[in-house]
Amino acid sequence: MYDDCMKKKKPSTDLNVIAHDILQAITGEPAGTTSVTREPAQKPTKNNAQPEKNPAAVALGRLGGLKGGKARAKKLSAKKRADIAKNAAKARWTKK
Asked: Which terminal Cβ of the chain has fewer Cβ within 10 Å, N or C?
């Protein structure tokens, strides 16, 4: 009587779910159980965190980065700068 109006659950198309269901059917385990135990995520500690950076090296890298673009633009010819700008504009407009 109710079979016509109740929606039936579609079988999963995920291969991992299908394999898990088959394995449970073969071993006789009830649905929803698993032998895999999950370990809680570890909080990052000082040992597995990234090493601290040398402040002097960071300052030197930043100094070079700040003047790099201006120095490069000064070194390029006007035609070359225009070509770079055209390519950049084309890339912005054709990118999806």
From this structure: C
State the Cα–Cα distance between residues 25 and 27, nearest whole angstrom.
Answer: 6
Q: Return the closest-CA partner of residue 32 out of 18, 43, 19, 21.
A: 21
Per DSSP, 25 falls in state H
Q: DSSP string covering 36-94, please?
A: --PPPPPPP-TTTSPPPPPHHHHHHHHHHHHHHHHHHHHHS-HHHHHHHHHHHHHHHHH
> CA 69 → CA 3, 61, 64, 66, distances in Å?
71, 13, 9, 7
Percent of the chain with pLDDT over 70: 68
| CA-angle at 74, arms to 71 and 79, nearest 5° | 135
Q: Is residue 73 a contact partner of residue 81, using CB atoms and an 8 Å limit?
A: yes
Q: Name the pLDDT band for 49 (thresholds 50, 70, 90).
A: low
